[in-house]
Amino acid sequence: MSNPVYLALDVPQLDAAKALCDKVKGHIGGVKLGLEFFCAHGTHGVHEIAHLGLPIFLDLKLHDIPNTVAGAMQALHVVEPAIMTVHASGGRAMMEDAKAAASENTKVVAVTMLTSLDENDLKRTGVSGTPHDHVMRLAELAEASGLDGIVCSGQEVKAVHKQWKDGFFVVPGLRPGGKATGDQKRVVTPRQARDDGASVLVIGRPISRADDPLQAARDIEATL
Predict the structure, then answer these.
(1) Is residue 194 within 8 Å of residue 202, measured between CB atoms?
(2) Which of 91, 81, 200, 223 is nearest to 152 (CA)?
(3) How does DSSP assign 8-30, residue by residue?
(4) Residue 61 is among the residues annotated as catalytic for this protein
(5) How many CB atoms lie within 10 A of CB 147?
(6) Active-site position among 18, 23, 25, 61
(7) Residue 159: count of CB within 10 angstroms of its CB
(8) Contact call for residues 22 and 49 (beta carbons, < 8 A)
């Protein structure tokens, strides 16, 4: 991948999303469309963004019983995303069925622990141990389930990459040096994540909410 940056395009208005993507597409490698975008615009919106010529990462974080997740994956063949997410906490059977039902051209990756969570949040949901321990357990389960890779924070990707040599690792929650972290708790810079083994760097607000999104995308690309 010549440019690992995927722009998180969670913009409510479709025309604004298309305009932003078109403006920066020469300095990104793909587009991440999340739950907010999909609920607002559905498969039509995905097709509209795909027409701009960049790979699509459809980040819906599917999490349900295996049969339901498999059915959802089959229904999404119509948009054939390059990358699709499920939740690792859905278990091995769910992940196996998700991968089996996905398009052959779609990488299925498991979300381990949201970058907006920390150790205190884990404890409140009954999970013991550190975020690192939790991510490593779920990464091992995702690999055993036959998935292509995982989503994890930049704080864990180096260790996961060492454990899973040929895995595909998506790292969100990235902030260029000096930028506000917002609701993200476990953040690193794009350069650090890439050096530690990230395959895809998901970057949203540092580009989409910048005064000059094009220059922001150029500046981030230059660090890589």
Answers:
(1) no
(2) 200
(3) E---SSHHHHHHHHHHHGGG-SE
(4) yes
(5) 25
(6) 61
(7) 16
(8) no
Pair 163, 136: CB distance under 8 Å: yes
Show the tokens assigned to 97. Answer: 């069925």
CB 52 within 8 Å of CB 21: yes
Which residue has 């298309």 as its token pair? 18
Say if residues 31 and 6 touch (Cβ distance below 8 Å): yes
**Rounded to whole angstroms, how far apart are CA atoms 27 and 25?**
5
Backbone phi, psi, residue 20, to 5°: -65, -45
Q: Give tens-digit pLDDT for 70-105.
A: 999 999 999 999 999 999 999 999 999 999 999 999
Q: What backbone torsions phi and psi does residue 202 show, to the nearest 5 degrees?
A: -95, 120
Instruction: Indicate the pTM of the whole model.
Output: 0.92
